[in-house]
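debug: dumping io for the single-chain case to check the tokenizer round-trip. Nothing else runs in this session.
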Amino acid sequence: MPFRIIREDLTRIKADAIVNTANPEPVIGSGTDHAVYQAAGAEALLADRKKIGPIHPGEVAATGAHALHARYILHTVGPDWRREEPGRASMLLASCYRKSLLLAQQLGCESIAFPLISAGNYGYPREQALQIALDTIRTFLQDADMDVTLAVYDRNSYALSTALTDHVDAYIDERYIEEKTGASQAFRRRRRFEEYSVGAAPAAPGNLYHAREDYEDAEMALFPPEDLESTAEAGPENPAPANAAPAAPVSHDAHISPAAGRPPETSRREQAARPFAAPGAPAHSAAPGTPARPSAQRPAFLRGRKLKDLLGRKQETFQQQLLRLIDEKGYTDVEVYKRANVDRKLFSKIRSNPDYKPQKRTAVALAMGLRLNLDETTDLLRLAGLALSPASLMDVIVTYCIENRIYDLFEVNALLFDYDQPLLG
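debug: decoded output
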């Protein structure tokens, strides 16, 4: 992904350029500056640094990387929050990021790693320092291709807006289902609905309505309405036996318990799951007292159809719907994959392969790059065999962002990082 936030020692990162928060004078400072010198080889790096001379706040200069896993070290001097007027301090801090990125581009670098500049010994408020970093990097990547890493050494050096995190905390408390419960909300509602359908005490009207909706939605996803016929229906492909009794009408609003004299209505899912005999074969054995199922009562969507006919009715693939949505919403490919924090090469693979199956993080990122609402996101993910789950903390946070139209992947990933979740892109 073009931009990522990681919790790592800056000096251990492999990148073309490593940004050092340097001392204005050519001496070894403290904090990140000291760590970079020690990892690169203090004596050799200091000799190169002395050739540059003093560096003013907001400026940047390059040396070789020496023992680091990089080609260059970019030395930039951040503003001292305690000595600068706030407006000038923010301008200088943005300059550190922008000029480092531009210099890395001039040097032919394809990747660069930053610390959170000035948020340590120079006392810059962490929330503001992070926002300036995100804004400046985002602006640069709108017109450039480079992998940018923001390395945060520990949680104390990283801070998001408390207004945002307080809202997210409340949303998580309301929506997140701990995995240890072993059941999702839809499963629990469906279970209540099934209990009601066999004679148990009914749930509250609102819960029952949603339970039935979830239950029928699950069945309709498996057996679309155009494929479903009454299992007692007669026709050229399925003539009814001469002595067959008329089929009784079925009502989804009348659920009869076994105690009422006959078994409850059989769901379409159960009908399809029952084994059926091939034409001419003996009826399948059943439990004592259970009437054998005639071979003619196959799942309706299979009767008279061949596999090749079913395969010929394939829906859009993930890639096809993605490209159609880009066109319908008037976006360009570049707009979408950059907003989605997706690499250009990866997007090219998706565009060239109609059957491409993306990873979940990529699929969700592209949905957010398209500014899709929650229903549209659900539809797009379904075509890749994916879904947002209330049992996944990452998915709950993503759902919060979509519902609140927070589509900026830099902000979303900063939020996911704060909750120790995988990043999108």
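debug: round-trip ok. The longest helix spans residues 86-106.
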